[in-house]
Each structure stands twice: as C-alpha cells, then as structure tokens.
Amino acid sequence: AQSVTQLDSQVPVFEEAPVELRCNYSSSVSVYLFWYVQYPNQGLQLLLKYLSGSTLVESINGFEAEFNKSQTSFHLRKPSVHISDTAEYFCAVSTIQGAQKLVFGQGTRLTINP
Amino acid sequence: GAGVSQSPSNKVTEKGKDVELRCDPISGHTALYWYRQRLGQGLEFLIYFQGNSAPDKSGLPSDRFSAERTGESVSTLTIQRTQQEDSAVYLCASSESSGRTSDTQYFGPGTRLTVL
Predict the structure, then answer these.
(1) Taking 70 as the threshold, does the pLDDT of residue B1 lie above it?
(2) How far apart are CA A108 and CA A8, in angstroms?
(3) Which of the residue ranges A63-67, A96-100, B64-68, B97-101 would you say has the lowest mean pLDDT?
C-alpha cells in the first residue's frame, strides 16, 4: 500500500518570500507523483506531476518540485510567492502499474500575508 | 469545454436516510473516480470506473455505499442509511485514461454532505 505525508498542515508566508511545502511518500513499488492545488471556492486542479526523466518538474505559474527517490520526497517550492498562490496544496501518488487511483496527503494550507 | 459537474453542491440529510450524489464527467473521458474528503483530512479513494470493465470498489468503506455508471456518462454514488461519520465532501473526477495511471484527473467542485 502507498501512503503520503504532508508534514505541515498550514504554512504562512509573506508575499514575495520563498516557500517549500514538504511531501514524503511510502511505497514498495514505483510511483508517479502529483501536486494538486485547490484555490478558494474552486475544485482541485493539477499543478504538476513527475512521471519519468528529469527529477525536477515545473508548473506554468513558477512552482517546481523535485523527485528524490532516496529520500522518498517530492517537495514543492516557489522562490517568490504572490497573494494569488493562497490555496490548499495536495501531494498525491499513483502506482505505475495496478490500481488506477490517487493516494493523497492531508493537504497543506498556504496563506500569503501582504 | 465543460468540466466535471456534480450535483447537488450541498446536501443536508438526517441520519438513517438514503442519499444520491450525481457526477457528470467531461465528455469523452472513459475513466471516472469518486473520492471522499473528511474535514481536515486528505482525499480518500472510493471507487473507479473504466469503460465497460468491472469497477474497482476497493475503497468503499461499507456495504452502505454503492455507485453506478451508465456507459461512459453519468455516475451516481448512493449512500444508504447515512451515518454522521458519512459527513464529508464527495469529489468526482474523470480522465481520458485508457488504463494509464499517469493520466491527469479532472475534479468536479464536490458535493458537501452533512448528516444530522
């Protein structure tokens, strides 16, 4: 079975400051890794995903995440956040073969203060 | 194009009543998923439909929960004899999937169920 741990339930930061949202996973088989974002009053949407190849993946709005197999981590980072990044962020995994489902972490609420 | 839609957006019911939640996936998406999000927790997988294959029901928490899907269209999640612990946001997602676990899932806005 797979599990995902997001160590921080809430992360407050000031606008234009850097941020890192941590995600660790546990799995006995290879996985794909995802970050989903839920903006206030909106549904979940994909932010970025790692499938294979380069371990650093980027989103269109400046976020990046790096797959670290040895540390079983997939932390999300942004060098300078904006008010519009205020949202809840969910890390998730799916197995490369087998059950077609996502296993989610508990989410991290990112709050940007002016 | 239109995204995944769910109805109702909110449902308040009394303990012991049955409820039906509806999901309309994105047109052409063959895969459909139901998840549950309890307050302060992550999403829990409930059930997965892929085309005409038998659904993966491994996430359904009890036999009070069931789901149906008509072809590659609408799905309904039914909860019988609701309990207070069933209170949660129920999310539906769809993907183009032809069996690839890497496919992006597109989520609906959810149905917030409150059992009194």
Answers:
(1) no
(2) 6
(3) B97-101
Site from A29, A89, A102, A106 to mutate, B interface, most B CB atoms within 10 angstroms: A102
Q: Are the Cβ atoms of A96 and B40 closer than 8 angstroms?
A: no
Tokens matching residue A42:
């909106």
Phi, psi of B103 (to 5 degrees): -65, 145
Option in A95, A102, A106 nearest B45 (CB) = A102
CATH number for the domain harbouring residue B22: 2.60.40.10
Q: Which residue of A has its CA nearest to B97?
A: A100
pLDDT at B84 over 80: yes
Q: What is the pLDDT of residues A26-65, one digit of tens each?
A: 998 889 999 999 998 888 999 999 998 888 999 988 999 9
What domains are defined for chain A? Answer: 3-113 (2.60.40.10)
Closest to A42 (Cα-Cα) out of B33, B108, B6, B11 = B108
- What is the pLDDT at residue B70? 84
Domain extent for B15 = 5-99+107-115
pLDDT single digits (tens) A76-110 = 999 999 999 999 999 999 988 776 789 999 999 99
- Contact check, Cβ <8 Å, B105/A102: yes
* Amino acid symbol at A41: N
What residue in A sits closest to B59 (Cα-Cα)? A101
Closest CA to A31 of A95, A103, A104: A95
Q: Among all residues of chain B, which has the CA nearest to that of A5?
A: B42
